[in-house]
Amino acid sequence: MSTQHRQGPAAGRRILIIGAGRGQVGLIRAAKRLGATTVVATLPDPHLPGLAEADEVAEVNILDADAVVQAARQAGVDAVATSCLDTGLEALGAVVDALGLRGLNRATARLCFDKLEMKERLEQAGVPTAVYVPVASPQEVPAALERTGLPAVVKATDLQGSSGVFMVDTAQEAMEAYTRAAELSRGGRVIIERFLEGREFGAQALIHDGEILHITVHGDDLATGAVPVPVGHHVPMEAEPALHEQAGRVIADAIHALGLRDCAINVDLMESRGIVHVIELTGRAGANGLPELMSTLYGLDYYEMVAREALDLEVRQTWQSASPWPGAVLALMLIDPEAHGTITSVHTPQELPEWATDLQVFKAVGETMKGFSSSNDCIGQVVVRGEGMEECRRRAEELGGAVRLEMSEVPGA
Q: Nearest CA to 83 among 110, 120, 50?
């Protein structure tokens, strides 16, 4: 459909979407359904699925905030958004500031993206977070470990997800991890953090005009590796009501500490010795099936809520009209640690059962599989609903088992 004939509450509007990866496809589609013309900001890459979905492309490095502002001006946009992506948050904030748009400002976006600045602000506000020490050289590692103890976590401060994050058990491993993290970090900044032993989980939230419309705690399924990698999320999370209540208070305090407003929020949490700690908090919807899980849980399009917020459309009434699913919901990434080779064919079910709300396959013919070490190696995702979590897990296994990849061996492997 020509954008001139597109209808909806955002008809005639132009929205810049930061990124064109799989995590932004749902947002692009939602903005188009609202009537907006979508412009994606990204460097050219034929493998990015959002390029085929967007109306226009602004070729720009989303790590260069000033260049993104210039591209936004040239594109004539009057809104900006992203989802499932931390990398371009500072650029998003820069566009908000420069063009006077709705959303995170640059200072707040930087707090979301930089783990050190985030933790400093949380600590100042009294929000529980793991003990941490900034480390600027290998010589500072031993002193940092005296404070954090072992095991510990070494983190590059400016990368997304588990990139540049290393679990260490010895001082020698910490020295090696520091070197690797510093090399991976764009700014060369590293922190060493006390390892918290306990229950890892997360939450999604939506804040509109300073009001927190919801905080939804979800359980996380983790795959073991160099660091635990989230490969699934589920609601409800089985826990005592007191834990849910404490998590809600801690999240609200963290939101206010960072000054987040007019955005979706993703929170990584850890309950250790009865205390809920904030691991990370960022002003965008979570990745790895979380927007689809939220959509299924609340009976609306969560990507649309993000787009509505950015476009300054009606949000509160739309949210209040949601029809929550009364049972359980599970979003599960499809992984295969044994998958090695070049994909020659992909087989998926032609129809989905009524209890399945999402099935996506991320990999395509010609791509090479090298097992599983990070979320980039996920084959796809499924989202299912049921009366309880046991039923959801059976259904996810059934649906995931219907996805088959045929592969040829990699020469020399």
A: 50
pTM of the model: 0.93
Contact by Cβ (8 Å): 226, 163: no
| Same-domain check for residues 356 and 257 | no
Range of the domain at 292: 197-327
Do 140 and 249 share a domain, yes or no? Answer: no
- Per-residue pLDDT of 312-344, as tens digits, reads 999 999 999 999 999 999 999 999 989 999 999
Whether 213 and 321 share a structural domain: yes
pLDDT tens across 74-83, in order?
A: 999 999 999 9
The answer to whether the beta carbons of residues 82 and 92 sit under 8 Å apart is yes
Instruction: Indicate the residue among 296, 327, 358 that finishes a domain.
Output: 327
Q: Give yes or no for a contact between 295 and 303, defined as CB atoms under 8 angstroms apart.
A: yes
Q: Cα separation of 239 and 26, whole Å?
A: 31
Describe the crossing of helices 65-75 and 89-99 by its angle, rounded to 10 degrees: 50
By CB atoms closer than 10 A (0-12, 13-18, 19+), residue 263 is buried
